[in-house]
Amino acid sequence: MVGFTTTIPLEVLVAAGRRPVDLNNIFITAPDPQALIEDAEIDGFPRNICAWIKGLYGAVVRHGIDEVIAVTEGDCSNTRALMEVLSLRGTTMIPFSYPHDRSRQAIARQIDQLAEHFSVSRAQIEDARDELGRIRAKVHEIDRLSWEENRVSGEENNFYQLCTSDMNGDVAAYEKQIDAFLEQARVREPRKDSLRLAYIGVPPIVGGLYDVLEEMHARVVFNETQRQFSMPFACADMEEQYLRYTYPYDIFTRLADIQREVARRRVDGVIHYVQSFCFRQIEDLIVRRKLNVPVVTLEGDRPGPLDARGRIRLEGFVEMLKGRKA
C-alpha cells in the first residue's frame, strides 16, 4: 500500500503492482474522520491549520501506511511539514513536485524519479496508462450523462470522478463498479432541474452538499477538481497528461478550463468551495473577477454535515438564480 497526499502519476504505482491509496479518500470516508483530526491534534498539530492535513496524518497513522508520496509543489503549502513529521515517525516519504513553470522537461524528470523509485520502465508505465485510460473514459461517460443527458446526480458525478485519484485502491473492482453504474444510469429518465450549477475548488469536507442542492431543484453538472482527477484530456504521453491536468498549477490555468466548461454545460451559477486556513481562499477574489456567472463562496472547516450557515447561503444563492431565470 502506497499513500499519497494528492493526485500523482497513478500509472507508476499501477505499473509497479502497488496498491494506490489517496489519503484524502480514506480520511473523508473513515467511519469517524473527526477522530483522525483529533489524533493529529493530540500528537501536537495546531488547531488553526487545515483539517485536511491533520486528517491525512491521522489516516497514515491509523492505517499503518509506511510509504507515502508527498506532493510538495502544486498542492497544500503544509505538505512539507507533514512530510517531515511523518518522516520522524519512520514513514518512508517520496517527494513529487508539479513544476510551477509547467516545463515538459521538469515534469518528465519528476515522473522518471518516481519510476526509478518503484523500479518500473516507461514501457510499463504506458501499458498502465492504457489500462487506466480505458477506465477513465468510462468515468468521462458518467460525466457526460450528468451534464448532457441529465441522468446522473451531482453526488454521483462527484463520487465516480473523485475515486479516479486512486481507483479505490483496486483497479479491476472499480471498473466493475463503474460498469454496473453505467448500465443502470443510461436507462434512467432524464432529470428536470431548475438550475445547473458548477462546483469549483477542492472536494468538500462537508457532507450532504449535493443532496441539499437537489432538494432546492438545483444540480451540480460540473465538478471542477474531481473532473481533473479523471484526466479529461486526450494526451499523447505522460508529460502532456500531467501538464494539462490543471489542479496543481496556477489559478489562471484552472480558470481557462472552468470558463470553457461553464459555457459548454450551460451553467447558471458557480459554488466556489474554500477550505478554512487554506491559501486557496485568496484565489476567491480572482475567481469572482474573472467568471461571468454569479458565484457564491462556501467555506468548510471540519468533516460533518453542511451547517445552517452554509445552507442559508446556498438557499439565498439558489433563490437569486431562480429570480434571474424567471
Automatic annotation (TrEMBL):
<comment type="similarity">
    <text>Belongs to the FldB/FldC dehydratase alpha/beta subunit family.</text>
</comment>
<dbReference type="Pfam" id="PF06050">
    <property type="entry name" value="HGD-D"/>
</dbReference>
<protein>
    <submittedName>
        <fullName>2-hydroxyacyl-CoA dehydratase</fullName>
    </submittedName>
</protein>
<dbReference type="InterPro" id="IPR010327">
    <property type="entry name" value="FldB/FldC_alpha/beta"/>
</dbReference>
